[in-house]
Amino acid sequence: MRYKLLLPLIGLGSLALLSACQNLTPPAGVKPVTPFNVEKYQGKWYEVARLENRFEKGLTHVTATYRLQDDGTVTVINRGFNPQKGQWSESIGKARFTGSHDRAALKVSFFGPFYASYNVIALDDDYQTALVCGPDRSYLWILSRQPHLTAKSRQTLLAKAKQAGFAIDQLLWTDQE
C-alpha cells in the first residue's frame, strides 16, 4: 500500500484552513459538548457522512484517529482512499483545546500556524457516535466507532444536525465498503 501525504487531507480533524483559520468558534447557536472526556474520545473513528469539502473531495474509507499526548494536545491522523488515483492519503495534525478541557471545542492544525475550528456538538454517552462541525454550517461530519450507523443512531444524529441548522439533505454518505 502506498501512502501519500495529501496537504492537507483535512476532513474530520479540521476544516477550511485558510478561509476559517481565524474563526475558532462554533456557528452561532451551536454549543460544543460539555462535559467532554478527551480520553474516551481518542482512538479511531469512521466518517459515516460529511458535507462535501475540497479537502476530502472524492475520498472513500475516511477515518480519523485521535491520540492524547502528555502535553494535553491531541494528535490527529486523517486517512482516506482516493479511488481515482488508486492510493491512500494521510495527513497528521495537532489539536488543542480552545478553552476548558471538559468542553469539546478545539482548534486543529495540519500545517504551520494555521488553525481551524473543531467542535463536537453531539456525542452519545458511550462515545460511539459523534456529530462534529467547524466554524460555520458548511462543515459537518457524522462519525462512528463502526463503519456504519444503526438506524436509530442515524436518525438521532440527523435530527440533531437539522435542529442545529445544518443542510442534512446535502450530506455525502461515505463509502466504507
UniProtKB/TrEMBL annotation:
Domain of life of the organism encoding this protein: Bacteria
CDD domains documented for this protein: lipocalin_Blc-like
Any one of the GO CC terms: cell outer membrane
Annotated ranges, domain Lipocalin/cytosolic fatty-acid binding: 37-176
Topology in membrane: Lipid-anchor
Keywords assigned by UniProt, alphabetized: Cell outer membrane, Lipid-binding, Lipoprotein, Membrane, Palmitate, Signal
GO MF annotation, one: lipid binding
The UniProt record lists the keyword rRNA-binding: no
Signal peptide from the UniProt entry: 1-19
UniProt keyword Plastid present: no
Lipidation (N-palmitoyl cysteine): C21
Lipid moiety-binding residues (S-diacylglycerol cysteine): C21
Family recorded in the similarity comment: Belongs to the calycin superfamily. Lipocalin family.
Job description of the protein: Involved in the storage or transport of lipids necessary for membrane maintenance under stressful conditions. Displays a binding preference for lysophospholipids.
Protein name in UniProt: Outer membrane lipoprotein Blc
Organism per entry: Rosenbergiella nectarea
Phylogenetic lineage: Bacteria, Pseudomonadati, Pseudomonadota, Gammaproteobacteria, Enterobacterales
